[in-house]
Write a structure and sequence with these properties.
Three copies of one chain form a homotrimer.
Chain A (H helix, E strand, L loop, with lengths): L5 H7 L2 E5 L5 H11 L2 E4 L6 H7 L2 E5 L5 H16 L4 E4 L7 H13 L4 E5 H11 L15 H11 L2 E5 L3 E4 L3 E5 L12 H13 L5 H21 L4 H14 L2 H7 L2 E5 L1
Parallel strand pairs in A: 1-2, 1-3, 3-4, 4-5, 5-6
Antiparallel strand pairs in A: 6-7, 7-8, 8-9
Helix pairs in contact in A: 2-8, 2-10, 3-4, 4-5, 5-6, 6-7, 8-9, 9-10
Chain lengths: ~260, ~260, ~260
């Protein structure tokens, strides 16, 4: 049975500092509390250094970026690197506008992420944006994004997670897939942003960033399956999803997680 | 049986670009996903033009305006006009402060909305603000606002929707009323803002802005009725409302919608 | 049987103007609507004076502060004092960063709050920050914070409320404890921020700020108990909590509230 890190997460209750978008701040904070972590949201330039200092990990999610927030992302990302805190980048909507490509490039120039998590289109767009080519189709499967994910993982020496029907996690040497989850998860805003934050919580309590990300994504997927059994639609799903994150045991998670892995 | 446009909305899944307020961003995005549309929220000046370009319709909702966001509204509204995308204005709280009156006047000077949606007090205040008179009572019925709605529809050659116990939709030549809905809807923050976003989704897939707005408001009202049957209060209502938007069929919508209409 | 003020709140439906954080705006607005008050959220400098003018009470919650918002807090707090509107300060995360200490000191220099509400760590940190000592442990019990609460209440001649397993309310002469509530409340983001807003609603309709705060906290705790009976975890809890605020009767509140009080 694979170690899920979940006991340790609940014991340590890591403080996850999220610079995330306005749309999902509430969901994200509640998901972190439900799984057993502690959320903090702060973006003011005069306190970013100080807040990163007391955090266990840092999320930069560019969903509702603007000029002020972009500076916040850069400050937080650099501080995370300097202070050796795991840093997760969620490049929301990269590829949709040149400004989002610019923002991601600035962040990746300023700091090395521990993990980049996005959907297939975002991972492909991020790869294209960072290799200075352009043009991104809007819908892609996880399979389509596999080579982009591998290239990014090698380029930035980080973990890359592509979430979708199947979640793909790659490092510069390893690769795993998580086959859990439910289609209703795509009908709820910020489910990807929640995954990003949950990953940050697991990264905060593990030395092995690859395994931590696999556990986090399995946890998301299994919670989604549990919630879907009790739900009629996206409204009831959200409520039961938080309950599932709160109630799931490490043993149940190990038993139900469907993970395949190997070398790249 | 009236065409509800709902099949087409779900088939096309239009991208609704909402510049909306912090309070309701999450609800709005979830309601759009539940009904079958795709939400995007972006307000940064460097990307507004680009985001409007890929959107199917644009919402400007002034709920939590400030100086930066007011410029965003103006840029997005102008871009929507230039690119021929339907534009919906939700003048939240107009009449409450001179700054909100000023903001609405600036927006209406900069661009022509396809639809203005507000409650009775807001529509009356908007009419007064734009005709340079002043003074607005705080509570009004839809009937009170009827002449203001008609005047605005003629002045801006747009659709005006006044939501309340009964929803009134007027164009420069036509008028309809939707008699669906439930009192609990007034006990949930942002239900009007959600209506605005749902209208924008319907406007994106129809050539007939009047009929699209009628369908959208019927959809809101019928979903509210379905949700209220399963609810004990505003908490359970919200959850079942999203489920209802997700589950409702075009046929059910046609059957249950109570619409009366005629010429002005 | 203690007067709960709840009848009066529902009769008057006071307008609570909240300058609060992005994470909890939606919860806060919904909680205010559920209990029977009217929420408004506005932070733009050009309209703050005007909005405070029409409000019944004002909340300043520094959760996601930045330079612009800090100026908003100062303007709103001063306006509340000038216009004799009850002012509630929620010093979220004070002690976590020097900037939060600075912000709280600026606010307390600019205006006199009617009520300061925080958790034990925040009340202790606020006391330390305002007495220019430093160093704050992260977890404290309400008992630990009792002397800090009393000192702040005397220093600012205001009510201080420390929320936790037991809620402590102190004035410069009186002291009460509310023994209601449920552990799940600590697993939901912004439950403290909601308490702050509910306090502001009760302060708006009562001449007796001490009793109004006691009633508000009893209302929160009792609603939490009712919700917990129907909940499996933090997701279902949130939904039933809003229902409970909506459905609770003044009589039920009086009967179930567990309040102990006396002189300081």
């Amino acid at each position: 049975m694979r170690d899920t890190h979940l006991d340790k997460l609940r014991e340590l209750s890591p403080l996850v500092h999220s610079l995330t978008n306005y749309v999902v701040m509430n969901n994200t904070a509640n998901a972190l509390l439900s799984i057993g972590a502690s959320p903090v949201m702060a973006h003011a330039h005069p306190e970013l250094q100080d807040m990163v200092k007391i955090a266990s990990s840092v999320v930069v999610n560019i969903g509702t970026l603007d000029e002020y927030w972009l500076d916040s992302y850069l400050m937080a990302a650099q501080a995370a690197n300097e202070l050796n805190k795991p840093l997760v980048l969620d490049p929301v909507g990269v590829g949709a506008t040149p400004y989002r490509n610019y923002a991601c490039n600035q962040i990746l120039k300023a700091a090395n992420p521990t993990l980049i998590r996005g959907n297939a289109s975002e991972i492909m767009a991020l790869y294209n944006a960072s290799s200075k080519t352009k043009g991104v189709d809007s819908t892609h499967s996880v399979e389509d994004a596999e080579s982009a994910a591998e290239a990014l993982a090698s380029q930035y020496n980080c973990i890359v997670c592509v979430s979708g029907n199947v979640d793909l996690i790659v490092s510069s040497t390893k690769k795993a897939k998580v086959h859990n989850g439910h289609p209703l998860m795509s009908k709820i805003t910020g489910m990807g942003c929640t995954a990003t934050a949950i990953c940050a919580a697991f990264l905060a309590i593990s030395e092995d960033a690859f395994e931590a990300t696999v556990s986090a994504m399995a946890c998301m997927g299994v919670a989604g399956e549990i919630a879907s059994d009790k739900s009629e639609g996206p409204g009831t799903f959200q409520v039961h999803f938080l309950d599932a994150l709160y109630l799931i045991s490490p043993q149940k998670l190990s038993e139900v997680a469907k993970i395949t892995d190997g070398n790249r």
